UniProtKB/TrEMBL annotation:
CDD domains: EEP-1 (cd09083). PANTHER family: CARBON CATABOLITE REPRESSOR PROTEIN 4, ENDONUCLEASE_EXONUCLEASE_PHOSPHATASE DOMAIN-CONTAINING PROTEIN. It comes from Flemingia macrophylla. It comes from the Eukaryota. This is Endonuclease/exonuclease/phosphatase domain-containing protein. SUPFAM superfamilies: DNase I-like. Pfam families: Exo_endo_phos. Residues 8-278 form the Endonuclease/exonuclease/phosphatase domain.
Amino acid sequence: MSVSLTLMTFNLHDDEPQDSPNSWEKRRDLCISVITSYSPTILCTQQGVKTQLEFLQQGLPGYDQFGISRKGPQDTTDEHCTIFYDKEKVELLEGGTFWLSESPSVPGSMSWGSEVPCIATWATFQLKGVEPPGFSFQIVNTNMDEFSPRARRRSALLTWQHIASLPPSLPVVYCGGFNTQKESTTGRFLLGRSREHGVVGDMRDAWPSARVRKNVSLIRTYHGFKGDKQGTLEFLKLIFRALCLCWDRQTQDLHIDWILFRGRSLIPVSCEVVNDNIDGYYPSSHFPIFAEFMLPRTVRMLESPVQEDN
């Protein structure tokens, strides 16, 4: 039986005051519902604070989580880039966090004009219940600076250098909130179409590469809790930004939440902008992105032993 790897990147939009229509208390059950309906092997969350992550952990008993606050392991109040994983399907081998700065090992460090500390959380997993045993892959989950293009470019370079240092045979999925479009200098560098400090990235984008794409008409992933409904001003801004982009056939979207990948053993078969809602009420200000990757035919599910009747 063929084996696939499913992944969802989901910006949780950190908590708001309880009297807000978008407070965590009012949307947390919908978040759980969306996640369980897709049941990704890997769930990468951004902007989640401890109370949100604890609620998800309670509502997702089949998952474990890995990640720390962007202010450091002792902090309990700030945002995380957390990786949830289906503990029946994968085993966590190792993981870590580095800061998107000139001092990547210093908790809370900032550089390049960034407004807040930003991090990348990485984790290496091994599939369970497959033959031959030992198929491993790495997930890198990030949330880049919202305001500084230079910080995003240098953050992309730093993270790509981490990915490039890994064994070429190890597949990697690099996802999260990039806070810019793919035709930006950050996106073009990562996708191998421009240079940053003399080097060129080699990531691929799951969205245009997938055989099947769902909700293509949703060309943005950030919607500010409005879904696909936009006022006149927002619509004009969207058109203006689209015209300012040098679009090509590879991109044609304004996604700021991406799923990138590296490695021949990952074949994207489907990718979806998830717009699940209840009467126009959304779980977050961002649409989650869901992707399914087919693994090589040489990787197969172990067959369950046949039980003989007594």
